Amino acid sequence: MTSENKTSDGRTDSDRTGGDRTDNGRTGGDGPGGRAGRSTYHHGDLRQAILTAALDVIAVEGPGALSLRDLARRAGVSHAAPAHHFKDRTGLLTAIAAQGHELLAAGLAGTPELRERGVRYVRFAVEHPAHFQVMFQPELLRADDPDLLAAKERASAELRAGVAELRDVPDTRTAGIAAWSLAHGFATLLLTHNMREAIGELDPEEYFRSLTGLLFSQAGKQHGAP
Questions:
Q1: How confident is the model at residue 163 (pLDDT cuts 50, 70, 90)?
Q2: Distance CA 203, CA 136 (A)
Q3: How are the residues of the chain apportioned to helix, strand and coil, as percentages rounded to the nearest 5?
Q4: pLDDT given at position 216
Q5: Are 48 and 1 in contact (CB under 8 A)?
């Protein structure tokens, strides 16, 4: 009978690997070539490997195509490994959404001007289309997940920070919703290929800057700005 070292959280070494490693340190599963063809993951890599495989599926086929068993096959691990890390499909999608909100918050940080925050929002959607598909579909997610809630709050705080810089705005909350709607709507139309004819060969970020510039200038004229 062998002994296992326990970590500070009370889990054993095999617990932390998710039961997906064999005695020789290789991952389980039925990858190509049997045992010799299986991938070896360093500690902590497996969770991200499953997330990456899931994002690849979502980008091509949408979140409805996700299957934990299929992801295990893609990642070259045992069929139980995804469930160990995410419990179920909802848990996996929730982790993707939380990661997406963290990436969005990081992308918006340090951009004081509201218009440029909108550009960063569009850039995030283009660079992370799979995250973007999942983040705003609450019916797919575990709404009370603490990681998701914390990540959403960080992203929301960055969005609100841009609105706080506006002057002469009587209702910053409504202004924030308007700004978010503009950026999110543009990004959604872009990702669903509904902007091809309008944009043509133009850079989407530059087109969005021009669009918001036009709207802001017209709003300023209506309020008597020079």
A1: confident
A2: 25
A3: 65, 0, 35
A4: 61
A5: no
- Output the six-digit token pair for 203: 């850079």
Question: Rounded to whole angstroms, how far apart are CA atoms 14 and 23?
Answer: 10
The 10 Å CB-count burial string (b at 16+, else e) for 108-121 is beebeebbebbbbb
| pLDDT digits 0-9 by tens, 102-112 | 999 999 998 87
Q: What is the pTM of this model?
A: 0.75
Amino acid at position 12, single letter? T
Q: Tokens at residue 157, please?
A: 């705080």
Distance separating alpha carbons of residues 52 and 72, to the nearest angstrom: 11
14 contact partners, CB below 8 Å, separation of at least 6:
4, 21
CB 43, CB 17: distance < 8 Å: yes
The token duo for 89 is 């499909």
Angle at 53 between CA 52 and CA 57, to 5 degrees: 115
Q: Which helix (H) or strand (E) holds 138?
A: none
Res. 114 pLDDT band, cuts 50 70 90: confident
Residue range 183-195, pLDDT digits in tens: 999 999 999 999 9
